[in-house]
Amino acid sequence: MPKAEQDLSIGQVAERTGLSVHTLRFYEREGVLANPVGRGPGRRRLYSEDDVEWLRLCVILRASGMPLPEIRRYTDLVRQGSGTEEERLALLRRHREHVLAQMDKLTRCLDLITFKVGVYEDHLEHGPAEQGCDASSLPERQEQDQRGVSPR
Amino acid sequence: MPKAEQDLSIGQVAERTGLSVHTLRFYEREGVLANPVGRGPGRRRLYSEDDVEWLRLCVILRASGMPLPEIRRYTDLVRQGSGTEEERLALLRRHREHVLAQMDKLTRCLDLITFKVGVYEDHLEHGPAEQGCDASSLPERQEQDQRGVSPR
DNA sequence: CTAGGTTCTAGAGTCGGCTCTAGGGCAAGC
DNA sequence: GCTTGCCCTAGAGCCGACTCTAGAACCTAG
What we know:
2 copies of one chain form a homodimer. By secondary structure, chain A is an all-alpha fold. Chain A has 5 helices and 2 strands; from the N terminus they run H-H-E-E-H-H-H. The structure holds a DNA duplex.
């Protein structure tokens, strides 16, 4: 049964996914689409709802920092069909760890930023009370625990 | 009193900050250093401990996604000295919001990724029980609540 | 004296991820 | 018939943030 679940134009897919039409064509060249996009009259792309769903997943993966080559890898595995599930799972787990690490890093950065915001708030509220306002102003002298935020 | 708090070479600063010497020179050109780096014999850079502290802050800001131009802006304000505190605070607050938004986005991405990991784990554990494993495998059919993750 | 390591400058190159341009096709409405 | 709007391809361009190169100076140890 040749599915006729009303195909979508590239513009419609752009709307639905938040990607630009340029990016959609780019992603296609990059092999990020699970199944080859169909073509209508005039070689125009015809996307299915499944394509849109897949792209939405790709958007999530990108938004969480997965590089395009890895998305392509995952796409390839899915295209290859069953037998590749272990590898897909491994890939997803790795990415999950990656996201958790990112969040961790951000949390640590946030602490320092919040601390500095606090310092400035105090400073502006009850006037520049302390005399320790040297040339580089108050930024120095925050505690020094920002280890392991981003080596190299 | 001309501080002689034992100056550091670019290589030592690289070690201490986790930045490469290339990046240190690059950052200097980009105006990311609060005070101009001193020079020793042979025009070699001499950094102070304060410079290192400042760079560590910059590393944190970068790691949390602040673009270099904004770091430069902040640096400029600090260089200008007192009177710019409100603006610095505003900048930091804006960045703080930005970081929170990032974390929020990541959290939402994480949910979906975790969900998919779960699906694959089930699938691999009690065999491919369900018959709904279509061409694009099991990826489709996750619930559809990933609104607002990354519009455009 | 020489060799090795670090540093210098100016500028070129790289990489990821888009983003845009040029030049053209086709279909619908005025 | 002509304009408008969406689409096509191939390929160039851009942006941010580094990263590296070439060619030279200096310093220390052997």
